[in-house]
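To whoever is on call:

I kicked off a structure prediction for a single chain this morning and the downstream step that reads the tokens threw a length-mismatch warning. I double-checked the sequence; it's 437 residues and nothing unusual in it as far as I can see. Pasting both halves so you can look.
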Amino acid sequence: MTLAADMPMDGLKTRAEALFRRKRMVAIALPLVLLAYLVYALFAFNVPALLQGASLENGATLIRDSYSYKTHVTRDNRSGEVTFAIEGERKGEYAPGTHPDWVTVAGDDTITDLGGGHLVHYRAEGVSYEIPGYGTVSAQPGNGGVNATFPDGDLPEWINASKNRVTITTDAGRVTITRNRTEVFRYSLGWELFFFTLDSPYHGMGPGELLSHALSGEAGAIWHDFWNNAMWRHGDVAWALVETVLMAFLGTFGAAIVALPLAFLAARNFAPLMAVRFTFRRIFDFLRGTDALIWTIVLSRAFGPGPMTGALAILLTDTGSFGKMFSEALENVDGKQIEGVQSTGAKPLLRYRFGVIPQVTPVLLSQVLYFFESNTRSATIIGAITGGGIGLMLTQAMITQKDWEEVTYFIILVILLVFVMDWFSGWLRRKLIGGER
């Protein structure tokens, strides 16, 4: 006779109702606990103050800088000299007597056409900006300040004015006026000078013209000017990517080589002494419990900056991770294969070589390749600390806060590198482990 037959129907009903009540309480309590935590985090991390201090204008400027470039038209208010440069850098400065085609130089009057009727005049007596739908802003920079004059009425939000500085930001561009200097920023789509700088004879040539010059025996010169581009530093970037992969490779496979023999001393079926197993397991816990970034900081203080320091940091952390995973794989090996090798009279070292290693190789190799792929991403961050790889160049570009198209370029390269390493590690796993016929 079953329990349900022995128990009265009222008792079953009571137990079922109690069970459903508990489940309902849990279903209601979990979202409430999550909501309470989110409310706590909202105030604990001072999110309202962060949102209040956020600048949407700066964010929009950074986003626009990521896919466009600025040409600076700069006037020294003391000497009256006007210069033209891509991103305001000397490496992108126009040669004397040359300027963009949207700039007109007529004696002492330099006219910058920002498009849509926006005109900026540099004259001997001062600066003026003609803004369609608003009027003309004029200034006479000097020792007394900017001395700006605006159309009647309240200043719009896109004008920031003080005694010594005036900044006007419109859809056409940006104008900054100080006592010593006036700058016009004109935005254009694309990454200017990505292939060739202004001093290269191949700047401005189309693909067909470049191909014609290459077939005429100038292929080496074309490649030289591209590879040694002073603005984008393609050669340096390529070597930085190689350094990043080398850091990940040396750290990952070095850790695998160190961890494999130590894993035998942490496996229960290969190290019968509990004290030995306990010691090596705690060593693995210590190594993997300390993040690679912490090891990077410690090692950089001890050995100085450099890619090798980053590789050692990855090696230490991964030695702990591999030691734990390898020892667990060794504990799950099939003892019959070991006994079969032992029956041939093989010594312990040969028993491990032919009875153990072939069993765990697919698992170990899969783990090592996965960590190699993951460490390629980690090496970018580690390189920013140790001073090596693409991470250092990315950090330097972000610190300047002016060439965000260069930051975008580096980020795209890192993403492509991760894609390539993901594909390569997957292909190598299938080839070596035998998952692909």
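Update from on-call: the warning came from a stale cache, not from the record. Cleared it. Sanity check on the structure: The first strand starts at residue 68 and ends at 76.
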